[in-house]
Amino acid sequence: MKIAVDAMGGDLAPQAIIEGAIQAATELPSDAKIILIGNENIIKDVFKGYGDVPSCIDIVHAEDVIKMGEHPTKALSQKPNSSIAIGFKLLKEKEVDIFCGAGNTGAMHVGALFSIKAIEGVLRPAIAGFVPQLGGGHAIMMDIGANADCKPEVLAQFGELGSLFAQYTFQLSKPRVALMNIGEEEQKGSLTAQATYPLLEQNKKINFIGNIEGKDLFTNKADVIVTDGFTGNILFKMGESLYEIAKKRGIKDDFIDQTNYEAIGGSPIVGVNGNVMIAHGVSTPLAIQNMIGWAYKQVKSKAFLHIAQALN
Amino acid sequence: MKIAVDAMGGDLAPQAIIEGAIQAATELPSDAKIILIGNENIIKDVFKGYGDVPSCIDIVHAEDVIKMGEHPTKALSQKPNSSIAIGFKLLKEKEVDIFCGAGNTGAMHVGALFSIKAIEGVLRPAIAGFVPQLGGGHAIMMDIGANADCKPEVLAQFGELGSLFAQYTFQLSKPRVALMNIGEEEQKGSLTAQATYPLLEQNKKINFIGNIEGKDLFTNKADVIVTDGFTGNILFKMGESLYEIAKKRGIKDDFIDQTNYEAIGGSPIVGVNGNVMIAHGVSTPLAIQNMIGWAYKQVKSKAFLHIAQALN
To answer: Which domains occur in chain B, in start order?
Structure first.
């Protein structure tokens, strides 16, 4: 298995990315290789600070970098030798099994749509956030930022995509799918939420349990939380902030520790023909290390192949 | 000052409401009276368990009750002798200075719109949630549930209404107004958020500081948080859930204690010609006690009069 990582993406790149990869290399099963994509000289320079570089790390040279503020589509077409463009080229050509990056989120998302493309039948791929649950494990929330505006049929499909993803990622036979809403009753919510409810209810391929509310985010009511990328992003970032608040206030708690974004390190794009994980711009070495660990599990789960089979 | 409270509204009514009123009575300044609205016999029966009833509590009889699940508009027209209908009648006739209730939220909101009505020029009154801030004090978030779907001009006006409300409630000369969004840059967000940003920016009557993200909810970046009633409700309820989570996990922290809905006990409707506070359906005596304390401050602030003056 080859796990490609954008060495140049993220506020703390390349240092934090390379350090995270080196840490991950010590834990990965022996069938895994890490491919660092970026400027070879810079990466080798950073390596010098870490003694012997694990043999399971390879470098693929990329001359260029897409910066955080750049327009995704423009940058991708103007910089074919950027680490993100090369990462997706390798992924498309099946030279690597997954591409992970903490750089320009828009470019990572657009790059996935333009290279490996959406699975046939998928209206809008989404970024799936792992939300820690009281009592252990995670729910996935879709979308957490790729699609700020979603039509009811898009949200309804998130329910199905999320259910398949959760089934193969968490080994659940019937993941509980819920719609994030402002009340438990069917008729509650925005016009979009009201129109989404019956679509989810009518879909016999999923185990739809109805609406959940903001207070239920962490309470293990659902395995798949359906929401648009606007509400989902705001809610997800609020959840992640709890760890920072707790740290500053000297609160030590196992569950709150799980809200630390570093604990998972990345969020997969669900609905595309391949494995992509997007990490925080501020990713630390620990975050990158844990993302690579999850990346291994995601490749093993073959979730995207199962989704494609189920839809087609 | 007369503070009217719906004695029959809420899951734990009338017991919890009456007990909360009795507790509040011991703390209220001497110029305040509490008017409990509800079935006189039932209220007097509950009083028996509490020895001498404070002289500052009066009862106004209401024969009927609007239940939690009832359709707001229908219930209000069919039950003119319900505690909610009578509360708004008294408020409209200026027999009381504020009406507070933990009953059917829709009926409380519709009752306000039908009786004291929206202030001239206000597009959509909103429910303002008090969000505790690290470092002390509160921000208000508008809307937290009255308007699930909001047009940009409605959101922009929330900024202005919220600014005036915060100015007089928190004695701030230039409240910081922020738009809840999925990124800090102006062009980020849903189509609605993108269209709202310039409207807020162009309004010279407010101190617009730009977008904030979910991670900023508690971090004292803004005094007024503008959002639609869908996202706002979900975010607010998630925030309130932290106290319950912390309590179950044995976490003791002053700030997290402030996320307990009981700490404020109610949320005002902003943009109507009078003072209305809406409490949680599950309100405990402590929540009702604290809501009555806030109700006193709200009446003293004359915020709704200042809003009407500023708009007209």
So the answer is: 1-120+271-302 (3.40.718.10), 123-261 (3.40.718.10)
